[in-house]
Specification:
The complex is a heterodimer of chains A (110) and B (239). Chain A has helices at residues 19-31, 36-43, 47-59, 82-107; strands at residues 33-35, 63-70, 73-80. With 110 residues, chain A is an alpha+beta fold. In chain B, 30% of the residues are buried. Classes of the chains: A alpha+beta (110), B mainly alpha (239).
Chain lengths: 110, 239
């Protein structure tokens, strides 16, 4: 007897499946390299809150953080790692699967 | 399920953020205004250094006419140099603006496509001149390409084709529609009654005015739209 496929909700990564961190990964994927201030503005976060989430993602190996200077102004740049690309793609795929399951269930007669 | 974990909301947020990054990267007005300037600046060159076709009887027993094209300044000098410089300037502007906004630019494929198309267009122009001479010398009338091929391979066609690449890179529907309109002006061609029966030099001048004008109006339109969008965003952020 074959085991049924696991529900996509079981495969969700808690590091990625969080609104702010998913937003960070999404922006970093599209931008390829994004500055701290841009993330803060787009996600409407305080610097401390954003730093906390970046720390979680960096510890999980999903992003790289590079600090530098543009003239005299300190800049922090965030880039997605290959693991981050994969994790984001997996998360998006699972979200779509979940939506599909919910919509299929809603369409079934009671 | 709380909104934080709602898959539909998360996916919608992801798409919204992706779109915001694409919009934040755009500097659409700059390429259009730059290429408008390049097009309009070609007018005095075409007017005062036009292509010259001279024909005279050959000093041979057959007495056949020999023709030559001279002063191809626009084809071999102005357009290749101006377009390459324009694409380099556009790439630099995009990179600088993106950096200031906290992003990286994604304009290299557009600049490379523009420069590559410029090289191809110059080669096709040379080929076209040889075809024209062959026609005059009655050597090969069947190798002539349709007019729209020459228009597409001309500097104005190059500008349009490269803008299609930019519209694709930026996923910019408005730019795509604008570019299709511009290419229609170039290929049909749409002259709004101007240039017909004016002689070759003035006819080309009229084309440049119209095409440059379309690019200029497009560039100004996108600039105004971007400024309005930025003011709207600042107003919403200030609430």
């Amino acid at each position: 007897m074959s085991t049924p496929d696991p529900h996509p909700a079981n495969g969700l990564d808690d590091v990625v499946h969080q609104r702010v961190r998913l937003g960070i990964l999404t922006i970093a994927r599209e931008a390829r390299q994004v500055e701290f201030a841009f993330l803060r503005t787009q996600l409407d976060l305080t610097a401390g809150n954003l730093s906390q989430h970046l720390g979680v993602l960096e510890t999980a190996g999903l992003i790289e953080v590079e600090k530098g200077y543009a003239g005299k102004r300190a800049r922090t740049w965030i880039r997605l790692t290959p693991a981050g690309q994969t994790a984001l793609a997996d998360e998006i795929a699972r979200l779509k699967q979940l939506i599909s399951i919910v919509e299929s269930a809603a369409g079934r007669p009671a | 399920m709380p909104a934080e974990g709602d898959p539909r909301q998360l996916l919608a947020d992801s798409r919204r953020l992706t779109r915001r990054v694409r919009v934040a990267r755009r500097v659409t007005w700059f390429p259009l205004l730059t290429l408008a300037a390049v097009t309009l600046a070609a007018i005095p060159i075409v007017r005062f250094a036009p292509l010259n076709l001279t024909c005279e009887p050959a000093a041979n027993p057959s007495g056949a006419t020999v023709c030559a094209i001279s002063r191809p300044v626009a084809v071999f000098v102005y357009w290749p140099v101006a377009l390459v410089l324009a694409y380099v300037a556009i790439a630099y502007c995009y990179a600088r603006v993106a950096r200031n906004r906290g992003l990286t630019a994604r304009v290299a494929p557009y600049a490379v496509a523009g420069i590559a198309l410029t090289v191809v267009a110059t080669a096709v122009s040379v080929w076209g001149m040889q075809q024209a001479l062959a026609i005059v010398h009655h050597q090969s009338a069947s190798a002539y390409w349709p007019h729209w091929v020459y228009r597409l391979a001309g500097p104005d066609g190059v500008i349009g084709l490269a803008l299609l690449v930019l519209a694709g890179l930026e996923r910019h529907v408005a730019l795509l529609l604008f570019t299709l309109g511009y290419l229609a002006v170039v290929l049909v061609p749409i002259r709004f009654g101007g240039g017909i029966g004016w002689g070759p030099t003035w006819s080309i001048t009229a084309s440049l005015v119209i095409e440059g004008g379309v690019l200029l109006l497009g560039g100004l339109g996108f600039l105004v739209a971007q400024r309005r969008s930025q003011r709207r965003t600042q107003r919403l952020a200030g609430r």
